[in-house]
Amino acid sequence: PQRQAFGDGVVPLPTDPGGRDADVTVTKLAPDGARQWSRVIGTRFEDEPYAIAASANEVVVTGRSRRNPGNDNTQWDPWLAALDGSGALLASRTLPFDASGILLAVGVDGTGAITAGGSDGWIQNPDGLSVLSFGAKLLFTLPSADGTPARIAVPAGPRPNEIRSVAIGPGGV
User: Fold this and answer.
1) Contact call for residues 91 and 146 (beta carbons, < 8 A)
2) pLDDT tens, residue by residue, 98-146
3) Dihedral angle sign, alpha carbons of residues 112, 113, 117, 121
4) Nearest to residue 87, comparing CAs of 25, 7, 31?
């Protein structure tokens, strides 16, 4: 539908055989509301976006990506994608954390440093949408979209154990 409406050639990303197609589209608008560009981002598997943040010349989208193709609903990886102000893709990647993971919050500062949060180490019910037990709060920083994540220790709390928002200020995260 977007390709037909705007004639910009936006197409889905390639998927593995048996995979589900669920990519993410990011659109940049001018202050007057005029559409400047749209880009399709994601991985070769199904992607779900949950948070977006922008700063200076970068936009970052986070969420989760299905680890296995098809209808395997048991494992998800935290997913992060970043684009610069012109729409060029800086990174689209899953991140290596425990068991299944999801990123529910993100912040980016003017230098391109990213802070993201969510949950990892949980197990999802393969027949439904409920998350079973376990899970740990996940909070980390990246010096850039393609950098190495540095986990920030956060005390456990009652279930659900997740970070839902992050803020980056003069005093830090």
Assistant:
1) yes
2) 778 999 999 999 889 999 999 988 777 666 666 555 678 999 999 999 9
3) positive
4) 25
C-alpha torsion sign, points 105, 107, 108, 114: negative
Tell me which residue of 57, 169, 39, 56 sits closest to 115, measured CA to CA.
169
Among 68, 92, 72, smallest CA distance to 82 is for 92
DSSP β-bridge partners for residue 76: 66
pTM as predicted: 0.87
17, 20, 66, 75 from 69: Cα distances, Å: 8, 7, 7, 10
Confirm if 80 and 51 have CB atoms less than 8 A apart. no
- Beta strand segments in 30-157, E: 35-41, 47-55, 58-66, 76-84, 89-94, 100-108, 114-124, 131-142, 150-151
- Structure tokens of 147? 């950098």
Give the C-alpha separation, 129 to 104, whole Å: 16
